């Protein structure tokens, strides 16, 4: 039996019931694909439902303020996805007169849409036979065919795309693409796949050579940099605090945070107190300093690890530009600050 038919047959029996599988609307498919980049289904599903509820059409998403979109995205991480989502909604609405691109080539013009996302939308919504290649597909194909080319190399990217394109069912591209992704997600899992009920064991090279854990092959990535973030949580005598918007490129762009003092290593109480005394918001006023988390919070990003401390500064005076503490939750903040807000009792 052909690979494509076998995996489509498997999918017809085993696929999960998910809301974006009940529609061919390109807006909803695009929305789901952007949310599910770097995100598992169980985490992404409530966000998808929230976006559909708040912005049932692309026009409503385009009309939203970026801060509202970022707030709704809060907790998903990789916030450039949300900014690109919003920018593309405006592009479709204002430049394309609300008509969503209906082919792979034109879909690539949307900000934040690359080969994978364009292939998914083109095949699912418009029946274009262009193969998807995501982490699940890399894993399935590398194991079944025993491919040792690193998936994070330019050679690997081309090799797997060509192979997936050869395998795709030209008459059922939507079913094939969804089937191979679903197979990787729930059957050919990264850890402890249930190979004994897999329909592909007979021809799977990794299984037959007892090398499941060796695939897919990846080039070693650069070691993540360590950064030391010290957030200063000011609390004034009128129960207000300070949030600052992160400007420019980099992590958490356009999100809000407490004033940040970055150090080149973990800092102790006395050394940090000296830094705070000279902070522009203190200006030699009396204050009390306490460390909220004795144990540093390590927040891991793809290219850097943030060693984070929250320092509470209580002032006997008011602060210029402060906001009422009860309004903090109106602002879009990084997940590490969101977690702090949930646990700290102002």
Question: How would you characterize the overall build of this protein?
Answer:
Adenine glycosylase active on G-A mispairs. MutY also corrects error-prone DNA synthesis past GO lesions which are due to the oxidatively damaged form of guanine: 7,8-dihydro-8-oxoguanine (8-oxo-dGTP). GO terms for molecular function: 4 iron, 4 sulfur cluster binding; 8-oxo-7,8-dihydroguanine DNA N-glycosylase activity; adenine/guanine mispair binding; metal ion binding; oxidized purine DNA binding; purine-specific mismatch base pair DNA N-glycosylase activity. Residues 35-186 form the HhH-GPD domain. The chain is α+β, with helices and mostly antiparallel strands and 346 residues long. It folds into 2 domains: 3-214, Hypothetical protein, domain 2 (Endonuclease III, domain 1); 225-343, Nucleoside Triphosphate Pyrophosphohydrolase. 41% of the residues lie in helices and 13% in strands. The chain contains 14 helices and 9 strands. It has helices at 3-14, 26-36, 41-54, 58-63, 66-73, 80-94, 104-107, 115-126, 135-145, 154-167, 173-186, 205-208, 269-277, 335-343, and strands at 225-235, 240-241, 244-245, 256-257, 260-263, 287-291, 297-300, 304-315, 323-324. Strands 1, 5, 6, 7 and 8 form a 5-stranded mixed sheet that branches. It has a two-stranded antiparallel ribbon with strand order 2-9. Strands 3-4 form a two-stranded antiparallel ribbon. A hairpin with a 3-residue loop joins strand 7 and strand 8. Helix 2 packs across helix 3. It is globular and about 80 Å long. 31% of the residues are buried. The mean pLDDT is 95.
């Amino acid at each position: 039996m052909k690979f494509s038919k076998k995996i489509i047959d498997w999918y017809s029996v085993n696929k999960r019931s998910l809301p974006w599988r009940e529609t061919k609307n390109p807006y909803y498919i695009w929305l789901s694909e952007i949310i599910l980049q770097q995100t598992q289904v169980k985490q992404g599903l409530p966000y998808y439902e929230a976006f559909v509820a708040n912005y049932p059409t692309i026009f409503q998403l385009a009309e939203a303020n970026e801060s509202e979109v970022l707030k709704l995205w809060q907790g998903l991480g990789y916030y450039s996805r949300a900014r690109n989502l919003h920018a593309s909604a405006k592009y479709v609405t204002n430049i394309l007169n609300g008509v969503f691109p209906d082919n792979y080539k034109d879909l690539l013009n949307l900000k934040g849409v690359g080969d994978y996302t364009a292939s998914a939308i083109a095949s699912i919504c418009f029946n274009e036979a262009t193969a998807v290649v995501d982490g699940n597909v890399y894993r399935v194909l590398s194991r079944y065919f025993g491919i040792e080319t690193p998936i994070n190399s330019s050679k690997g990217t081309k090799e797997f795309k060509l192979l997936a394109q050869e395998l795709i069912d030209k008459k059922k591209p939507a079913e094939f693409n969804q089937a191979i992704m679903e197979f990787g997600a729930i059957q050919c899992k990264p850890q402890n796949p249930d190979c004994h009920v897999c329909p592909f064991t007979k021809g799977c090279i990794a299984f037959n050579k007892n090398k499941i854990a060796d695939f897919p092959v990846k080039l070693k990535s650069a070691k993540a940099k360590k950064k030391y973030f010290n957030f200063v949580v000011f609390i004034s005598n009128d129960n207000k605090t300070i949030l600052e918007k992160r400007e420019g490129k980099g992590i958490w762009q356009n999100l809000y945070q407490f004033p940040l003092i970055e150090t080149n290593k973990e800092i102790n109480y006395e050394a940090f107190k000296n830094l705070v005394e000279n902070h522009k918001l203190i200006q030699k006023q009396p204050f009390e300093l306490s460390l909220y988390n004795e144990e540093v919070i390590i927040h891991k990003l793809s290219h850097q690890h943030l060693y984070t401390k929250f320092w509470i500064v209580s002032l006997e005076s008011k602060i210029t530009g402060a906001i009422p503490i009860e309004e903090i939750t109106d602002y879009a903040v990084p997940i590490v600050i969101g977690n702090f807000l949930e646990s700290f009792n102002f």
